[in-house]
Design goal:
Structural class: alpha/beta
Helix content: 40-55%
Number of helices: 5
Number of strands: 5
Order of helices and strands: EEHEHEEHHH
CATH class: Alpha Beta
Radius of gyration: 15 Å
Largest sheet: 5 strands, mixed
CATH topology: Collagenase (Catalytic Domain)
CATH architecture: 3-Layer(aba) Sandwich
Number of domains: 1
Length: 160
């Protein structure tokens, strides 16, 4: 059974977090996927402007279909980012493949939740215009930002 939870969090004023509309989806169930509260915490740590974001945890078939349709790559990948233009808002979707993320975490000897956190942060940075494929300089900038955000969440450097 698909589960989805749109949630509006509004915190305005000095020292407050920007507005966030977050929708977390588990179409195949939430087994082996992070909790909504973890996802919210990771999104909050990464988004510094008002945002409307959907984070969807999918199986390999959906991940492969989306990767083939939008990137012409016929395999399931760990995370896909789909940015949208919406005025001054950060708006977009992240799609994470549970099976790929689990295999990577195991192969890289990482805690599954830490790997999910890294990929959510990574995807959100893509939504904000960061890119690691244009140049080595851009990759270093994006990786440094990921490390900084993950450290604020007490998650170790995923590249070390």
């Amino acid at each position: 059974m698909a589960r989805s939870s749109p949630e509006l969090t509004s915190r305005r004023g000095k020292g407050r977090l920007p507005d966030l509309t977050l929708n977390v989806q588990y179409p195949g169930g939430s087994d082996d996927a992070p909790s909504r509260s973890d996802v919210r915490r990771w999104v909050r740590a990464t988004c510094t402007t008002p945002a409307v974001v959907t984070v969807r945890f999918v199986d390999e078939i959906e991940a492969q279909t989306l990767n083939a349709s939008y990137r012409d790559k016929d395999y399931a990948t760990n995370v896909l980012s789909f940015p949208y233009t919406s005025g001054g808002l950060l708006a977009g979707d992240l799609v994470l493949c549970k099976a790929v993320v689990a295999r990577e975490a195991l192969a890289q000897r990482k805690l599954l939740n830490a790997h999910y956190a890294h990929l959510v942060v990574h995807g959100l940075l893509h939504l904000q215009g960061f890119d690691h494929e244009r140049s080595a300089k851009d990759a270093k900038i994006m990786e440094a930002k990921e490390i900084e955000i993950l450290a604020s969440l007490e998650i170790s450097d995923p590249y070390n």
